[in-house]
Specification:
- By secondary structure, this protein is of the alpha/beta class.
- The chain has two domains: about 80 residues, no CATH class; about 240 residues, Vaccinia Virus protein VP39 (Rossmann fold, 3-Layer(aba) Sandwich), CATH 3.40.50.
- It contains ten helices and 14 strands.
- The strands form three sheets. A seven-stranded mixed β-sheet has the order 9-8-7-10-11-14-13.
- α9 runs antiparallel to α10.
- The chain is globular.
- The protein starts with a helix and ends with a strand.
- The relative contact order is 0.12.
Length: about 325
């Protein structure tokens, strides 16, 4: 057992392309292994349990499932996660990770945001004050503002928050819990592709509850580790992004998190996004880099396939309201 644990520690401290199934040795708590100097071990963000059963190894990093509550998480995380979100992150040419040329795809993202906003308005029955947590470059805020909402955003990236502010929307740079915004002020709070990045999602959800109006609602979109794509692809699932995505929710664990934070669960469903052929090629580069990288380049250069279409991309959406 000691030899196996030692071998695991050696693998964890080496950055390499490696996708494999977790073994019994992967159940050794990260605190008992040697970690890279820029990483620290994680505990379960939902129940605090340290022990996790190894599920997969992705790019040298271990993905584990909590032995108590089933929440899936990265076994380690960067010591300073906010340093990931630089200017390069928002225009990444990497096969996996980042926003896959967020700026180039802004027009297509706008269609997704308009669809989500219509869903919010149907549920809430009115427009009002909205806070987008993890607002990135502010494109959703612009859509909401132009639709008649009083829209504000929170963003941990100084680069992204400055870009958002340059678009004329109110943006707060920092960690939500540290900003101490006024209580009971927001009719809607959204977290779009945000909660999986959080070090302490329960703490953030509790702060969101404090900020919501008494009849306010929360709308979350996040990768679904319990969904069909994740189950079929296993360790090859696109949304396994060590160092960036720290927790991986299923509908059951997301419900548990929201209820633990004091929310009333209002259901979940598969979530999609508007995409183009070039965007699909960009995502498929992760599996076959050369052919799909070439096709993406050709598609963007020749502006092939500009017509957007709605596609389920391995994510879910969830709704909740204050429980009192």
């Amino acid at each position: 057992m000691a030899e196996r644990s030692g071998a695991l520690a050696s693998r964890l401290s080496t950055v390499m392309v490696d996708v494999s199934i977790g073994t019994a040795a992967d159940r050794t708590p990260p605190t008992e292994r040697t970690l890279p100097v820029d990483e620290i071990a994680t505990t379960c963000a939902l129940c605090g349990e340290e022990q996790g059963s190894g599920v997969f190894r992705v790019n040298g990093s271990l993905i584990v499932r909590c032995i108590r509550c089933d929440l899936v998480r990265a076994a380690t995380r960067p010591r300073s996660p906010h340093l990931v979100y630089t200017a390069e992150y928002y225009a990444s040419a990497r096969r996996k990770g980042g926003y896959a040329n967020y700026v180039l795809d802004a027009r297509i993202n706008e269609l997704t945001f308009k669809r989500r906003l219509r869903d919010i308005e149907r549920r809430l029955g009115r427009r009002g004050r909205l806070l987008d947590v993890g607002c990135a470059l502010g494109d959703f805020l612009v859509v909401a503002r132009d639709a008649g909402w009083q829209a504000e955003g929170v963003e941990i990236s100084s680069f992204a928050s400055k870009v958002a502010a340059s678009k004329g929307v109110v943006t707060y740079c920092g960690v939500l819990e540290d900003l101490r915004l006024p209580a009971n002020q927001y009719d809607v709070i959204t977290l779009y592709d945000t909660i999986e990045h959080l070090v302490d999602p329960l703490r953030t959800l509790r702060e969101i509850k404090r900020l919501l109006a008494s009849d306010g609602i929360v709308h979350i979109v996040t990768p679904d580790v319990g969904g069909l794509q994740a189950r079929l692809l296993g360790p090859l699932w696109y949304h396994f992004k060590p160092g960036e995505h720290l927790v991986y929710f299923s509908s059951a664990t997301l419900r548990a998190a929201l209820e633990s934070a004091g929310f009333l669960w209002a259901g979940s469903a598969d979530a999609g996004s508007y995409v183009t052929i070039s965007y699909v090629f960009n995502r498929l580069r992760y599996y076959l880099p050369r052919p799909f990288g070439f096709l993406e380049s050709v598609g963007r250069t020749l502006r092939l396939g500009p017509v957007p279409f709605y596609l389920h991309v391995g994510e879910m959406e969830a709704w909740a309201s204050r429980s009192e």
